[in-house]
Amino acid sequence: MTTGQASRKLRVLHVTPLYAPAWQFGGPVRSTHEIATGLAARGHHVTVVTTSCGTPDEASPDVVRKVVDGVHVSYCPWAPGPLGLVSRAMRTVAKGCATQADVAHVTGVWQPSVSRVYGDLHAQRVPYVSSPRGALSPYSFRQGWLKKFLYFRLFERRFARRSATLHATAPLEEAELRRLFPNLSIRVIPNACDPAKWYSDQVAGAAWRERYGISPDEFVFAHVGRIHPKKNLDFLVDVAARLPATGRWRLVFSGPTAVKDRPYRITLADRFPPGRLVIADGAGDTGETRAAYSGADLLIFPSLHENFGNVLVESLLCGTPVITSPNVGAAAFFGRTKEVRVLGLDAATWARELADQIAAGRDLSTAEEGRAIAAATFSPGVVAEQFESLYLSVARTS
């Protein structure tokens, strides 16, 4: 990056169907917010055009404009559609904002609310970065494959090919995108996780345990995030059945459950050994989630697919080690760090590892190593600088 590039202040337009404070919809909301606020903190003018879904303004029939942590956000009215959210206002507002933008960043594969925005950006000659965020993975294509295959051939493939570059959050996602687009530019930049928000809070962790009836001497395995089939929580039923029947251990699912997934949650809970499972409902806000990480002894994350997996990094920043599946992109950034164990999805292997953890108890000796790597790699300033470099490399010059 030249001195002139480094000093140039950009007008960046982010278009995404969901945005802060709709934390209940998972990692993409939080990571997009961290990108936007990180760029704003570096002096760039950042505008986000999104829907009001999941926010306090979601019932408003009008566009609600706010400045959130230095970012100019337009929350647009929306309606549910057959593939995702539909919002005519998003297209109108984004089209107006694009006239002043140097570069755009679009998140929203399979989302009708942003599909027409791609065409408008192309027509207005605004270079854009596209973040699929796992939506073009083999796992995603298997969910409603025929509908997605047709939509991809008709729309998403063209949107991707017109992008200045595709953004992958981890090497896992980069490899998936390379199979679809071998000739396109793809840049790997991880999600940002703020150490100022994610840290060990033993007081909150102890209160969290007390709230859910967990004694201080019980070993707690926690799964943090949405209770959803993609998280592979059925696998943990088989693991739990193999754990010591007499040991003092508890498994906690901490996170929100969508209305459509409540029958899955009920069925899942019925299959665990009696008294071993605790379900900690919540909206996924930072304080509540930080308390869960701090109160747990180990995060377990057997997901079937995560393009990144924010919870892995957040847990390490809170001093809690992780066992995860090979399907979680963020694990690649930690190499042989003792705080991150990557195990194939074999229930007997996981059960042996967890039984060893119960017998050994919590080991705090390596917690700082995991936190140091996470802070150095994923801090908002570090990630924002990488996006700044990317945007400057593709931004229009006039």
Helix content: 40-55%
Q: What percentage of the residues does DSSP assign to strands (E)?
A: 15-25%
Strand order of the largest sheet: 3-4-2-1-7-8-9-10
What's the shape? Answer: globular
Distance between the termini: 19 Å
Largest sheet entry = 8 strands, mixed
CATH homologous superfamily heading of the largest domain: Glycogen Phosphorylase B
CATH topology of the largest domain: Rossmann fold
The low-confidence runs, each spanning 5 or more residues with pLDDT under 50, are 1-5
Task: Give the helix/strand class.
Answer: alpha/beta
- Work out the radius of gyration: 21 Å
CATH architecture of the largest domain: 3-Layer(aba) Sandwich
Residue-averaged pLDDT: 92
Number of strands: 16
The CATH class designation of the largest domain is Alpha Beta
Please count the helical segments.
15
Structure in words:
This protein is an alpha/beta fold. The chain has 2 domains: 3-192 and 380-394, Rossmann fold (3-Layer(aba) Sandwich); 202-377, 3-Layer(aba) Sandwich (Rossmann fold), CATH 3.40.50.2000. The model is unreliable at 1-5 (pLDDT under 50). Strand 1 (11-15), helix 2 (27-41) and strand 2 form a beta-alpha-beta unit. It is 41% helix and 17% strand. The strands form 3 sheets. The chain has an 8-stranded mixed beta sheet with strand order 3-4-2-1-7-8-9-10, with helices on both faces. A 6-stranded parallel beta sheet has the order 13-12-11-14-15-16, covered by helices on one side. A two-stranded antiparallel sheet has the order 5-6.
